[in-house]
Records
---
Amino acid sequence: MFKKLSLKGSASASNQIKSSLQRNIKNSILTQYPKLKDIEEEIFPKKVAIVQVKCQNHINLILVNSEIIFFNERDGPYYPTLRILHKYPDILPHVQVDKGAIKFVLQGANIMCKGLTSPGARMDVDLPADSIVAVMAEGKKHAAAIGVTKMSTNDIRTINSDIGVNNIHYLGDSLFTTPTLSE
Amino acid sequence: MEPIIVEYCQVCGFPREYCEYSASAAACLKANGPYVSADAAATTTDNNTTTTTTTTTSTGVEDKLGELKVIDDSKEEGHTDSAAPVVEKKKKKEDKSIITIEVVARNKKKNVTSISGLHLFGIKLADAKKVMANKFSCGCSVVEKPGLGEEINIQGDFCEELVDLIEDKYPQIPLTSIYFIEDKKKVPARR
């Protein structure tokens, strides 16, 4: 999603949004990621207003302290950025790809089923289709990408061809290289 | 839930363990030294069986890093070699006359294509203006730019079509001396 998007200058409108909307955003993020409830204060400090920046292709970025922490597309689900995921890796279910796939994942490629079923890869949790996952890598501690499963983990195992996880946000894309947006 | 503080590389911005996959792997290695994950360091102090496995993997990684470094060095050399003549070429061309085409966004949907340098090739701007207005069927005007001489402004975004038109109508202009200005950088229109 962010391969070609240049964040600088593309932000068409960044508003201090209404506090009711802020609450809405916060609530929808918290319901989506129930594990964040314990650390709500850390991620959304009460005194600091949430800023929403609208970018090209209907992408919205959620900023706190001018740090990008979440983003979504149109009215879709909110995704955490990789930096948040690195801090709190448990907020998303993990899938692991094998070593050979890392290179391609970091270039923004979608994750093929073969890369999720080979010996180096792991899928510990059973997931339905269209769930947001953290893409870990064999031999690495931190996530390499954030993706959305295109089919359920069972299907990935049985069909074992074609794209299994759509790559949404990966190390080295333009969202990762611009951690903060100053207004 | 405690936040994990991830060590990011100063050079490439990736977490340290991903440095080997970044474009600047060699530079990262130079700046940081080989990456040893905390797990590997911890397990080496544990019992013997695990140490053997971890050490083998870590050496494997180091070997790979070495390979990467070698490859990257060669690439860099290649780049410098190819970069040098390009710079020379550009310098030569700047002595000669060039044509620059720039698209300026007037508001969200509307653009103005401004083309400067035509007079350097002995083209009458008034004539060229007529030709372009005819070809693109749009407003077109000769504008005096202080310090830069005269240029032609065309309503709309025609930078690609303009190159074709110049190629057709004015064969005396070499295509290599036509440049686009994109993000304030000169980009050759045709390669």
Note: The helical segments of chain A are 19-32, 40-43, 82-87, 99-105, 113-117, 153-159, 174-177.
---
Amino acid sequence: MDDLDRRIITATQAGLPLVKEPYQAIAQQLNIEPELLQQRMQIMLEQGQIRRIGAVPNHYKLGYRANAMSVWNVPDEMIAELGHQLGALSFVSHCYERPRFLPEWPYNLFAMLHGKSKHEVAEKVQEIINLLGEHCAGYELLYSKNILKKTGLRLKN
Amino acid sequence: MFTALEKQLLNDYQQGMPLVSEPYSEIAREINLKGFSVTEQEIIDSLSSLKERGMISRVGPVFKPNSIGVSTLAAIAVPANRVDEVANIVSAFSQVNHNYEREHQFNLWFVVTASSQNEVEQVLEAIELQAGLSVMNLPMEQDYHIDLGFPLWC
């Protein structure tokens, strides 16, 4: 990742313009050839810095009004295996390992769950409980009550 | 609520948008193979309408967390009578890009994104100082999610 890649990220993180030739428009802004921009983005896609290119849905507006952050306490030696299993579930939009913060916070695996109702989310939770089985030493669900601030990633140069 | 074309776009193009000079024309070509008969302009108009209505936040690349910059998830257990006040302190930082009130003893959850680890720590310290409350810092250690978009009408 070099300076040009960083400039490309900064120029595209808020989205591509909805015009006939969006890469041409971004390239012009960056003062580079569109072919170079596409090449660099292709490489970032292959290397995983870009996870996907497409329409980014707003879950809440699309009717997925029940959004819970589920947090799980699983054994450290199992977390990679269990994390990959949770991360592959279709209703999980983010799945991260994070440090515990003892004694108040024993949870090391975070999975964001989305459903049309709390009832639907509860069903998904049961699915995870079944999947984790004896490896689950505890969990909690934190429903969002208020979105106080939400802006996309906006890093300046 | 959605036209057939909008549903198809939402289902099929959360990923895999063609990386070619005229991607919306390519999408029209691909979608027409599935029984549609649409033009490039209709694709652009549909996506623009979804965006204007807030159904999608944008069309473009989704970057891996921490590709550039450093971020962390942090939480504070705020006394019930101080939630608004502390939430405002937190939201006022430009480095805070998400701030949620959640139903838990740790009731304020926010993401801090900055250009360096040092800057992230400075923001957390400044929040602790201004709020007079301690911050639980939970940086991501591993990302397990396979991001294929979100199934909507599958």
Note: The beta strands of chain A are 50-57, 66-72, 92-97, 109-115, 139-150.
---
Amino acid sequence: MEQPNLKKAAEAENLIFMDKSKSYINSYLGGVLLGLLLLATFYINGRGLGASGAIKDSVAATVNEIAPGHARESEYISKSLGDGETPLNSWLVFEVLGILAGSFISGALAGRLKWKTEHSPNISIRTRILFAGMGGILFGIGSQLARGCTSGAALSGSAAMGLSGIVTMMCIFGAAYLFAWFFRKLWI
Amino acid sequence: MGPLIPQGIIDGGWSYVIAFVTGAFFGMILESSGFSSSRKIVGLFYGYDFTVLRVFFTATITAMIGLLYFNYMGWIDLSMVYFPPMYLWAAISGGLIMGLGFIMGGFCPGTGLCAVGIGKLDAVANVVGLYLGIFLFSEAYPFFEKLYMGNAMGNLRVNEVLGISSGLFAFLFASIALAAFIITAWIQKRVKPVDY
């Protein structure tokens, strides 16, 4: 008589564990928390959140380390070099290190830490990696042109009611919808 | 009165500690909202998961109205709050290129980093690509310069361009978001679910 009960309990436990890795917080709660964090960042630091800026600083630091003369001559990179201090000593670089730590903590608590390439069953791992890389390259170029990415320009810029933030946000999401049809095989 | 660090109310020496803690909360909120999964993120563009829209709009409205409230109470000097200046065609072309990159890669820089934090290898490729893209831009800067620096419009606010008050703009923005929440919930029910 005990067997079925044990089995049921094991199944229920399994279900909880399975659900756990896919259970996320409510989207509106996440949004309010993110908004409050953004507000606090504005209040403390005078500017919002960012991500691509930190990568830009590390590009500048790398180029400056490998080819200092080239870095100083480069009109774009020299802007990030400033007063001789390494560009890695920037607010955004520390913020991005925090993103990695925070995401790791959240993933650990929810049982989502795993080396994994997430992809649609219709495409190979190689295709997924290739397009993830190409998407990154485009995001890199676009974020420099628009002076910020989804975090710095679209989210923070829009919240501060900057015209460029709103325009960039509409262009990012608009273009993604526009091109979604062409790349549907990658996802659905 | 804020902002605190630019006015020296909090010593600048603390800024890296604050930056790290801010980033940690940022990463935790993104990850726990589901943004470490590219397939969840792009659900927005195929209609099977609108999490990004809900989180993004709710966050923008919360911070936007919060800033107006802080300003009204005299807690923050909005003229000291930074946002990117407007260069018309750079903002538009940059946004369009990012949108194309978004649908190809499934991540934006912030969510890509967040996914790296839990071990997604596709996100590692995405961040490497991001790094390369920024390097390419900096090397090809003479080519981009005219577009990047052209049509400078300064620190324009969207409500000034529309000729309305900031409060009215926030109200309109929140109304549009609310409508989007309702419409997308309706759409999601009618779109074939995707297992991911």
Note: Chain A touches chain B through 123 residues (CB under 8 Å).
---
Amino acid sequence: MNHSIAVRERSRATLLKRFFSIKAVSRIAAFLPPAALVFATAILFAEALPAIKYNGLGFLTHTQWRPGNFYVNPVTTNGVTHPVGALYGALPLILGTLESSVLALVIAVPVSIGAALIIVEKLPDHLSQTVGLFLEVLAGIPSVIFGLWGTLTLGPMLARDVFPLISQIVPNIAFFKFFKGNTGHGEGLLTSGIVLAIMVIPIIASTSRDLLRQVPRLTKEGGAALGFTDWETNRWISLPWIRTGLIGASVLGLARALGETMAVAMTSGAVLGANPSNAFLPMTTIAATIVSQLDSALTDATGLATRTLAEGALLLTLIALATNIAARLLVRRVSSTALPVGRGI
Amino acid sequence: MAQTTLDPLNTNLLGGTSARRKSTAAIIWVLASLSLVAIVGPAIWIIGSVFGKMMKGWHWSVLTEVGAGLGGGLLNEIIGTLMIVAGVAIIAGSMGILSGFFLSEYGDGLLGGVLRTASEVLAGVPSIVLGYVGYVALVVHFHWGYSLGAGILVLTVMVVPYIAKTTEISLKQVPIAYREGAEALGMKNSQILRRIVLKTALPGITTGMIIATAIAVGETAPLLYTAGYSQSLPALSFTHHPVGYLTYAVWNFYNQPSVTAQQLSFDAAGILIIAIILLIVLSRVIVAMTQKHSEFR
């Protein structure tokens, strides 16, 4: 049996083997992704190199973002020409990127797993299809529209009705102090985190749903035979069964949140070098800084400003790729079909 | 896989008495139902608020006039988006389908593995980064300027991995017996490819193309510094002529002080949502049609 499958597999692969023309053409096309990847990395690195030299390791630790004085003659340090007083520190950007994405995940993971459980276990077919449709719509809405809704509708509502409540309720100790004080106008870390959560829920929820559907019926029946309630069956059998896939899907959602640009640029306030004292006040991320600063960076005649943005882009790429590869390795170990394709549509 | 050691007779682990365990289950399921609200709610809220704002000041002239400062219509953006989508569909479509074909038919070895990984890694590069690279390389170094070509090329690099992946998956699902049967009938390679393999895999490939279209319609960040922006109708030129597109209108006009400009932002957002919903419906129809005729479920 196994032998014949292997033979058939091989025959599928070889059937078109002698079709040389199409093989040659398709091979060229297949080299586009690696070529683009190498090209993009090389361009980014070449562009960022002077900035890496000038900014040094301080880029990761300084908290100020000062383009310097564009109106006096530039000076040269370490072989890099730069405006007087230029100092770039990306720490607030890096923190903003990580904090907003982690916050998104903290909200999105429980919601997604809960939704997946109820879709698979409780909903009748036609209802679970309807919920699936909503997941597709959420995945398909352009990020700029999430930003529009987040900054005009959700943000002001949160600042008016929800943030003061949160600020009142949380205890005034250590970690929770981050949720105390000035509740702002609705542009900030918490708003961005919530919007990002809504954007990654479709990715995590649809993957969890597909994984839960793959748990063998017999295994679950074992739980029922032991007298488990339906929740206990899921808690002790189904969820552990798909654990690795769940982690992979969550990390994939994290990677998406880390690189998200428009929605965050519109809902975070995108204040340069912002170092918010609490979760309600304006902040910024690496991606939001790149998209909102390139225009003004172009006015730096020495080019250091744009090169620093390239350094930021390089840093963001490294963070996003490390997350993404980790996620794909985790998901692949469980099942090759569990990879969400595209943005979940 | 499940490594949890579990003694089912140890009721403490399961949370005490039978009544208590049942109430725990009930509470959990109520919470899980609430998470459905967190999915359906925002979707309806977003679409509702955008449509509401769009309807409030809707003029049909939006569809027939080009932009004029902070007023006018969205015709230039609509045509621009259509041109970008058409370009991406043609270039990324052919590259992606060929790439997926190669991975499915000849990609069993080491080379296939490397190419597949590169494709997945590329899909993980943030879109703003690709936009920045497109700006540095195409707009500045190649002297293309803000242009249709630069925008299309960056989007192409973005969506090829998705098209390749869906194409590969659907080609692999074509039953081997179909190929064997076709060969047994003495069909030529080109006939097998066109009449059997591609035809059977067509619905899956189409779905991949729809995903790519949806991304091309809805992306903003990679286009801002490659396609640029223009308020006149897009020129039929690949380089040196910036083009407007719908997502730019949303991003650029929403925080202008002028009410007509804000209205343009909501109109563009509404049109985008309608386009996305149409694409989703289209992909559902295709899936439903194939399942009807398929012997495999």
Note: The mean pLDDT of chain A is 81.
